[in-house]
Amino acid sequence: MELLNFMVGEWIGTSKVYENGKLSKQGSAYEKITYDLDKNILVIELNTEFLQLHTIIYYDDKDNTYYYYPFSKRGVSRYPAIFTNGQFIVNSNQTNRFIFSKTSDGGFREYGERLVDGKWIKYFEDTFKNTQ
């Protein structure tokens, strides 16, 4: 779980939604990310003008896999994830993924991509700076 330390903090930023490669919506975003259960899980509380999520990330030592559990008003899902090349990548299916990474200014970003005609196309991006 230590590899995900870059995500921990209270963050403010901007959420952008893209349609057909063009910005369609933009709004403010707030995210609080903390460890819980003796650093065995990472808890993400995301609030944007478009979306509210409560997510838990867990690393399973038995199968050497991270699991990403997003809870929303519609329910909960479970997706496998990996940490590679400084990025935390969640694969919700073969054609959809979420990527979390550090930014050069000490913040972090997360974005979602869909595989369309063999190319990964960004459909949302949240960029954050630490509030502290």
Strand order of the largest sheet: 1-2-3-4-5-7-8-9-10-11
Mean pLDDT: 94
Q: What is the makeup of the main sheet?
A: 10 strands, antiparallel, barrel
Helix content: under 10%
- Inertia-based shape: globular
Helix-strand topology string: EEEEEEEEEEE
Treating each run of at least 4 consecutive H or I residues as one helix, how many helices? 0
Distance between the termini: 22 Å
Q: Quickly give the structural class.
A: mainly beta
Low-confidence stretches: none
Q: Bin the strand percentage.
A: over 45%
Number of strands: 11
Radius of gyration: 14 Å
Description:
This protein is mainly β. The protein is 0% helix and 71% strand. It has no helices and 11 strands. The protein has strands spanning 9-19, 22-36, 41-48, 52-60, 65-72, 75-76, 79-84, 87-93, 96-102, 108-116, 119-130. It has a 10-stranded antiparallel barrel with strand order 1-2-3-4-5-7-8-9-10-11. A hairpin with a 3-residue loop joins strand 3 and strand 4.
